[in-house]
Amino acid sequence: MTNRSHRPIVAIIGGGFTGAMVAANLARNMVGQAVSIFVFEPRGHLGAGLAYDTADPAYRVNVPAARMSLIPEAPDDFVHWLSRKGEPADDPDALAADGHLYPRRSVFGRYVGDFIAPYLESRHVHHCRERVVTVERTGSQWRIRTDGGTEVIADIAVVATTHPAPCAPGSVARALAGHPRFIADSTVPGALSVIGDNDRVLVIGNGLTAADVIASLRRRGHAGAITALSRRGLRSRGHATAAQEPSGDFTSDPSRTALSLLKRVRLAIGEAGEGGLSWHAVFDALRTQGGCIWRALPIAERRRLVRHLRPYWDAHRFRVAPQIDAVITQGLERGDIRVLGGSLMAIAQVGPTITAQVRQRHTGTRQDLAFDACIVTTGPAHKGILASQPWLADLAISGHLHADAVGLGLACDDRSRAMDRRGEGDDTLFIAGPLARGTFGELMGLPQVNDHAIFVAEEVAQRLARLSRFRASAKSA
Fold first, then answer.
1. pLDDT digits (tens, 9 = 90+) for 409-427
2. How many Å apart are CA 317 and CA 287, to the nearest integer?
3. β-strand pairing of 141-146 with 132-138
4. What DSSP letter does each residue of 185-216 carry, written as one string?
């Protein structure tokens, strides 16, 4: 099927949270104007994506419900939606001890789905449940073809795909190939079902995904020992026990080096402590000022920050829900969960047993360990984004896309337009969501991703307005 239209067409590739929010906000911006919005997403519904399309009851939103509204001017929208829907239903643990609600992620996915539903029903947004296989330049437009035979000629294309799939370290993948309890990608539905209740589990990586995995295992009745290994021995922390206002000014005379930024953060944490605040308040300030902080840093300093400080940022910025933090804290206190900082020197299969040699970070001593299962939670392979899907690779080969200079995603300008091989922004090709964070910085937390989706929708709407004026002028000439 080929779709051609006299009205402008916007093609959004990827219908997870980012793609759905770009589509919904663009439809809101273009009310009363003739435009067709196609969202290419093979899942059955829009808005959930990898993060919220999960039935695992252990997986919760990591931000209090009161801070997860999709409408900035209506900050209580999600809370009101929960009340109307009678949510969270059958989930007494959703209310944390701090008084905040942390619903299951699937609940938030339904909220996003309800947000875009009116635009689907009105046919302002069209959901194409097929996978994109090719994206080609044709004059000033884009030809998008899918595995189902659909072809759309779009005036503007928006890349809103998810992160690349996790990639296990090569040495680990080779050594454990074929082992029945080696899980290279824990995000695959049902992946954890192969873990026995008493298995000794090695978790490689110790960020948010590791926390989710550990909470899910314990909820399933797993009682075996869990060792979470990461180079620095850090783990994602929980939220502050009491509400705090953000503390610290990092945008007045912003830092120009990663080292000076680090010194300012340490100073701010000390000053916050003297005022009775925790480090959470300083990192909340860093989060809200993140875009300005990032843009003030030269490319070389951004790379330095990512290389040396990103693990510390991730561990403090991306906090787990109190319910998940409690599971890990209790396990650490009992001793059946261990966080280990060090390097994996060797790993092998000896029959059904997985043997691992770890060199501890601070002492340098080597320790031989034995496990029954291994789960990789090191996160998405960001540097492999262009190779993750054939159409992305083709756009890179043809010079329309390239990786950003920091190694976090795709290169774009400050309007989120994709930058070609000459470094010029393309008015017809936009990058939305976390893949744009090489330019925008903090684009991983939901409020920031939502704000960016709104921003991209506004930029696309402005481009469509210019396109309509041009066509009207050409028609009357």
1. 999 999 999 999 888 999 9
2. 7
3. antiparallel
4. -TTSTTGGGGS-TT--EEEE--SHHHHHHHHH
